[in-house]
Amino acid sequence: ASCNRPSMPKSVAVAGAAVLAMAGGTEAFAPGFAPALSTSARFSSHALSSCRQAPGRMASLSGLRMVASTPEAAEWFTPGQTIGPQNPGQQSPVPLPYTNEGGNLGKNHPEGIKKGSAHLMYPLQQEMADMETIDISADSVVVLKHHGSYMQQNRDFQVRNAFNGGQSDKPAYIKSHQFMLRLKNPCGKVDPGTYKCIDDLSQKYGQQDLRATTRQAFQLHGVKKENLKHVIASIAHAGGSTLGGCGDINRNIMTPPAPLSDPAYQHVFQASNYIAELFKPQSSAFAELWLDGEKVHTLEYWKKDMLEGSTGVNHIPPVAKNLAELDSQISKAMLHDSGTGIITGDPEEPLYGRTYLPRKFKIGVTVPGDNSIDAYIHDVCVVVIMAEDGKTLAGYNLMVGGGMGRTHNKETTFARAADHLGYVDKADLTEALKAILAAQRDHGNREVRANARLKYLVHTLGVENFKKLTESYMGKKIQPWVPLPDWKMVDWMGWHPQGDGKYFLGVNIEQGRIIDRDGVNLKSFMRAVVDKYNIDMRLTPTQSVVLCGIDPKDKDDVDAMMLKYGIKGIQEIDPFTRRSIACPAFPLCGLAQAEAERVMPSFNKRMGELMTKIGLPGESFVIRMTGCPNGCARPYMAEVAFVGQGPDLYQVWLGGSPDQAGRTGWQWIDKMKAADMETTLEPVFYMWKTQRSNADEALGDFLHRVGKDNINAFRDSYTAGTAFTNVKVEKTKMPMLMGSLGLNSKASSNSRKSSGPRKQQIRVTDQLAAMLKSKSEGAGVPISDVVEDILMSSLSK
């Protein structure tokens, strides 16, 4: 009672129900900071660049005051920096098994590279100026990641496989150096100008395709070194950016992809935009390297969304009246120093410091109930909590310590589902997130890079001790977790009303590859829609795309365009394809041990055929595939996952939640041959069919309930082919993935569950007509949407 924490409000119990609210300005995120530093208190980029020194030609430090508590800190800090890994702002509540000092840091090569990079400049600057070479050094690769790019080679020239006819070409492999660019797309949103830009760039300088990632960002592959600067600059000048796409900094922030006018969702979008700016690297290196130190031509579109009166924004509560006010507010919030050790003293990177974070830092933001973002896989997940009246933003639940990456045969690395940290009032969000970042910055393991993610710090300390550490940086207590409704995995495919009179359309993109091939001209379709209607799009966490802001009168035309370009409506997509995701793996990922994206379609087809063969036609579950154990496609949360373990070999994981809610699966077997998928899983599926508690018990829940030992015992006693003898065909309940799971505030079924023009009429009694009219008015949607929702829900049971 003393902390005034809201009990579980009705608006939360209805999974995201809320009504528009905003306290005004950044009050939704942070208190007014009277003592905060102004923008002018920071060094200008010109002043900083004049102080920048390349490794090997460092200026004398005489006359510069190095404030640090130990010689170790002096070596790793910039002039003026007083806080960081070698001199933490707060002490850990319990001893950690590493010190982040001494010779052990030398074993983590990227730490030394970041230290010597002069805030992400060197040696990349010199090497990018050398156009006689087609590649860059390993040291520059580390720096380049922070600018949003990876160097790659075409491994189809390196190894023999089914996709190159069994022929390798080593000389061609040596000459195949190229660069992948990953954009920063907060909320997964891409405005029409940025999309047209990257579409054009991919045609001229890339490999004529784009890829939607599992973190709602676009990747552009195949860029040669000689064109890299032009491509990055072009994206920036169009209003986009690659800064924050990769590296040991805050990465792209995920949100539900549905552009709903529901106020809880609107607060999700605005909080995400705000956090993206709050944790953006402040180094001038990006502008100096790629923009010749000049300002971009077009304001980043997510910053536009935070301004009052911005166009194309679906009721997002404004943060500021104009750009100057926005920059000032974010700067003050970033630089606010309560004396608890969050601000490092580094004049160029006040939050990150000289060596940035130990590893990547991923944030997701969502509403209660909507688990389209895989809430438990992030370093930090923020859940918007609306007050009891449904009209006021109350605060945020926070989760910490999720993450997927691991290494085969290395038990010290593991996938981990996030813990519930607690609740903070809306005014405390900024300092809470800064405190979590500072805790990871100062106490994350910098000696062993494989154990550097926040999940390992949370695991090592335990969530209660991590909470104490965070509170020490924050300067106040984190309140108890607000109870939430059950999570539901929704993909927001098909047609849905936004709630503002317009519609959005979710288009399935198989494994995220936007390309024209085999009669499915996705790339041409998307460009044609954007050219014709000048609409935004949002990438989904399942690698698909949501087209936003479509006028009702244009829906039939968009459906006709889908037909013209060979794009299937969502009702035509098989459930395994719809629910699966895969990483790119071969041919360009240097870490891939097996295929993923290129074989996932065949695995989906084979899995559907196997379900039919054992008498479960139409049954589906969440399948994910990665080419290596790093987990980019979040395999360890899936009901069934295939993790690359060698050429055509996969480690099989089982038992994740069908809604990816609060647990990982577990490793079942190693080195399954791709060709043996059916025979390997046959006994597992037959056990599920014959022993599940009821027809609605999902595969993942069943496997989690019975456990690995019982599954192995059943497999060992199983006679091959039993599942195909005297087959009893069971009626299958369709998975509810439509986005109409009570996640909208005005109605529990405020969405369209099928795509295509409506041509048929249904006659009803006056009594039913009155009831439908009342339901329609209460939900704020057309009667036809209500009828379709009722029919689809009933027929799907």
Structural summary, described in words:
The protein has 797 residues and is of the alpha+beta class. Helix content is 31%, strand content 12%. The chain has 24 helices and 21 strands. A hairpin with a 2-residue loop joins strand 19 and strand 20 (649-654). Helix 14 (429-443) crosses helix 16 (463-474), helix 15 (454-461) crosses helix 16 and helix 20 (600-613) crosses helix 21 (677-691).
Concise account of the structure shown:
Helices cover 31% and strands 12% of the residues. With 797 residues, it is an alpha+beta fold.
Topology (elements, then pairings):
Blueprint: H1 10-13, H2 45-51, H3 71-76, H4 109-116, H5 124-128, H6 138-145, E1 149-152, H7 170-174, E2 178-182, E3 189-190, H8 192-204, E4 210-212, E5 218-223, H9 225-237, H10 263-278, H11 285-290, H12 301-304, H13 323-335, E6 363-366, E7 380-386, E8 393-400, E9 419-425, H14 429-443, H15 454-461, H16 463-474, E10 494-497, E11 503-507, E12 513-514, E13 516-517, E14 520-521, H17 522-533, E15 537-539, E16 545-550, H18 555-564, H19 575-579, E17 581-582, H20 600-613, E18 623-626, E19 640-646, E20 649-654, E21 666-673, H21 677-691, H22 699-717, H23 766-779, H24 783-795
Parallel strand pairs: 6-7, 17-18, 18-19
Antiparallel strand pairs: 1-2, 2-5, 3-15, 4-5, 4-12, 7-8, 8-9, 10-11, 11-16, 13-14, 15-16, 19-20, 20-21
